[in-house]
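Morning!

This is the sequence you dropped in the shared folder:
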Amino acid sequence: MARTAGSTGADTVERLREAALELFAREGYAAVSMRAIAARTGVQAGAIYNYFPTKQDILFDLLVGHMEALATAWREMERLSTAEIRLADFVRFHVRYHLVRPREMFISYMELRSLEEDNFRRIREFRRGYEAIPRQMIEQGMAKGAFDVLDAEVTTRAIIALLNGLTTWYREDGRLSLGEIETVYIGLVSRMVGAREEEGNV
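The structure's back. Tokens below.
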């Protein structure tokens, strides 16, 4: 049987995704076999191909799912305001969203190299769409003289790299609370965009 008792096709796909996510994040894409993914979910080894023809399909599915969910979550909480306030909102959002999804964050950046060319190109477009969100805020702040930035695109990538790094060291029982860390990060981003002192932190 391809499915465990009482399961549906959608349930099986979700279990395969979860198993692959866990294994890719823990062992790396290259070290994980389709058989290992199937074994973790109770799906017969041969039956996994009914859901995902290749391991590459699973990785691509996970990365697309992450980027789509990320963009949707931002749209749901985005508010109209000044570039400074919106950029601070983005910092808080990005930090909080990814801290509870460290596995998705890990494979989204560490396993891009494992994507085939067409899949890599498509994921890159998703990422460019997401990176355009803070870049537009930066450009708006530059246009009104609130930010002093040499290059909006480079600064955007530097900010996202800074925010992504938090998942590698943050601990709930650490010296600072999440709220305090967010305040520090907002201050760092404020300096990165050259926010005017009278504007305060972004």
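Headline: Residues 1-6 have pLDDT under 50 and may be disordered.

More detail when I'm at my desk.
O.
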